[in-house]
Structure formats: C-alpha cells, structure tokens
Amino acid sequence: MEPVFRKVTDFRRGTLYALLADAYSFDERCAACWASQWQEFDDFFYDNPKIADACGFVTVLEGEPIGMISWDPRNRPEYVILGHNCIVTRCKGKGFGKRQLREAVARIGRDGDVKKIVVDTNSSLVAPRNYESVGFVLCGQRDNTGEAAFSGDHLRCELGLK
Description:
The protein has helices at about 15-25, 30-45, 50-55, 95-110, 125-135; strands at about 5, 55-60, 65-70, 80-85, 115-120, 135-140, 155-160. Helix 1 runs antiparallel to helix 2 (about 30-45). It is built from 5 helices and 7 strands, in the order E-H-H-H-E-E-E-H-E-H-E-E. It has one domain: Gcn5-related N-acetyltransferase (GNAT) (Aminopeptidase). The chain is globular, with a radius of gyration of 15 Å. The chain is of the alpha+beta class. The N and C termini lie far apart (about 35 Å).
C-alpha cells in the first residue's frame, strides 16, 4: 500500500512528539537529549495550525500515522531549512522515508522561488543516506562535542532547486 500525506492538524496534539519518540527509540540517549525539543516542536505546531499545515505534513499508511516532516521557509528565496523528519520504527527500511522526503522537496519547490533546501543532521544516524538518495550533497561537517556526541558529527547537506 502507498502512503498518503495529510495535514498536521488532522491529528491530535502529541502526534508529532509520539512519532519522533518512536523513530528515535533505537537509542535511549536520543530521548534523553531531545525529548524537550520534540515537545516544544509539537506544542509550536499545534499552537500555530496555519504554520503546521503550510510547513509540514504527516505520512499515513492504512489510516495510521507513520512519519512526519517539517520545514522552515523564513529564509526564502535563498533557502528553506528542513526540520524534523522521521519514520516510525516498524516502517523503517521500506522506502517510506524516501517517499516522504521527495514529497516535502516537491512541496517546497512548488512555488519556484527557492534556490536550495538545507538540512542539518548527524553522521551516525541513517538520515544522511536518506538525504543523499534524493540528491542532497554534503557541504559541511563539524565535530559534535555536546551531550548528543553519540549521534555523530554535525553534517550540513544541501539540495539545489534552481
């Protein structure tokens, strides 16, 4: 079955947090470092529904949310920053993350005024391979010496749209 992409506001508050918590459940250190950020993100999107529906979506399979992605368009037209992007554990490795990312790139590029999309991620996560699979290119790397050092070096990847 193919996934569908639905508005964030089609789902109850807490959905984005739950998706992120599940997606990063492979290492308890992720929640220890990032749970408060996930909660702030969830609260912000549900407190600002117009932003939520314009700058993100939930990926749904057979009626159940399996992932989400978001972006920050405030630097348009120079670039848009991808934000949180995840697929729940049971659906990883099945191509849903790639489809979700392609959909986000298509939506961001639809207006035609964005020069590039940038994303910051970490080298020890699976995310860099997902970004590369749709054409993002590594353009910067720096050491990660903070509490989340277990997640690998900080990586910046870019995808040109023009």
